Every structure is written in C-alpha cells, then in structure tokens.
Amino acid sequence: MNILLPFRCLPAIVAAGLLSLTGGASAAGLRIVTSFYPIYLATLNVAGDIPGVEVINMTRPFTGCLHDYQMTPGDLVTLEKADIFVVNGAGMETFLDKAIGQVPRLKLIQASDGIPLLATAGVVNPHVWVSVTAHMQQVENIAAGLEQLDPDHAALYRKNAFAYLAKLDALRATMRAGLQNVKTRDIITFHEAFPYFAREFGLTVVAVIEREPGSEPNARELAQAITLVKKIGIKAIFAEPQYSAKAADAIARETGATVYRLDPVVTGPMTPDAYLIIMQANLQTLEQALGRQTTDAGHQTTECEANIEHPTPNYGISTSTIRNRHKKQEKISHGLNTD
Fold it and tell me: Among 53, 74, 54, which residue's Cα sits nearest to residue 63?
C-alpha cells in the first residue's frame, strides 16, 4: 500500500539526514554545495533562482560517479565556505565521514534518505537518481531539508520543487509510454548504474560487464560476456558516454551486436533542464536499440504485452500527489493557506 505524504510533512522524514536544524540564511547569503552532478541539478531546480541563495557543485562536472573519489584540498576549501552540503547518500560519497570531520559545523541533507535501496551481493547500489521516480523523491528530500534549514525561503523552495516535480512526472509518463511496447526488454550494460532505471521501466539487466566504471574486463570476463550475448541473442550493448567503449566494441565485433550510449546523468551541462534532456535522449536511444512492436488497426494485444507492468516503486509520490500540491500552492499564493 502506497502512503502518500503531504509535502509539508517531509522535513520530519529527512530529519535523520540533517546534522543541524537550526538557523537560516545569514546576512551574507546562503551557500549550498552539492556533491556531484545529478544532485547539483536537483538542488539547482529547487534553490537556484532564489535571491541570496547560491548553489555550487563541489566536484567538476566531468568527474562522473564518485566511486572511490578522493577529496582534494580545493574541495575542503569549498566545504569550509558552505552552509549546507547536499549529497546523494546511500554510500555514494565514501568521503562523507572525512568531510564532516573536517567541517563539523556543516549542515547535511542526504537526498536518498528513505528510498528503498537495491543491492548486489550485499553491496548497496547508490545510483538511485537514474530512476525518475526515485529522483523525484530526492527532489522532495532536498526541498524539505532546505525548508527546515532555511525557513525564510521555505515557500520559494516549495514552489520550485512543485514546478520541477511536475516536469519530472511528465518525463516519467513519456518514458513509460515510449518503452511500453519495445520488442525486447533485456539489456547489457557496462556499469551498475541502471538497475533502478530498469526496474522502473520494466527492463531486465541480464549482465553488467564492468562492475566499476572504467575498469576493463579481463580476457575471461570478456569471453564470458561474448558467450552470454550469443546465447541470449542480445542485439544491443549499452556503454556510457563518460567511459571508454573499447570492451563493448570488442564484444560487438564478436557477436554482431550494436553498441549504444546510455547516459547515467553523471556529467553534462550545468543547466536546470539537463536531467530532462539527457533522459529524453536515453529514451530515444532505447527505442532505437530495443525496437518497437509494430501495430495496426487490427492488432490485438498479446498476453506478453498485457503482462508488461511499470510499477511505481513505493517512494511516496504519485501524479495525484503533485496535482494536489499545485492546488495547495495556488491557495498559499493567494493567502488562502488552510493549514
């Protein structure tokens, strides 16, 4: 059973992810630092246009995923000047304890707080933002945390979050429709970035060639991958634009499969709509790679098609929830808050 929570209640949920809940923006303004690209995009949409609030990203935009990332002296300088540090959490920022130890006054928001996590062989997968629904919950958590830490701008954070959630909801609907009738639902990827995405849109990751990004498979692993692709009849292999496709190209040469690029949204332009644009491009890539079922006026839905489901993980978000929030926001903007 999904329990849909009013937006105003969410600060209590993310409270466990906050090191301090006191104080608002200082007279000099509020500086929010994010850990890496997808969290920057989410935070930018919530707080980027608010006067007196600055959003900057700690890592460079081409850093990619933060697996084994080591903080630099420049990173520490950035955090020392920050008021709030927004992170993905779920184990992505392995340097987090060090950062808090170096800057203990730093207020922390963990965007993945409360999101059910996937694990492989007991290792938690932190790539939750690649699921649109999970990313929506991250936006909720960020907005709720900022409301509580900076109450002077609470209404603006809430308003911005409502607007961005509506865009993400429309994106999710478009992607579900686009992937509903693809010919095959099996994919092979080169990084553990896509299990949340696959679960949301009814795809199956049958193999991951490189568990850690950029780590080339050895000869035995490459041979196993080639055998698997031939056995299953996979026609599309998905590499990532951030990393070398050398291994993917080698598998393609041996199997006749085609290499496509699927973007986990870890690098890109530092603009508010970047997540939406990258995900739309991913949809186009998947439609091309997986093919679409041909339909005509006399087409009858097959049992296989009827059984395809795209369940929304229980992250506490639905289209109706967003609509209700918009209605509530309209009342607030006209001085009719009924709380």
Answer: 74
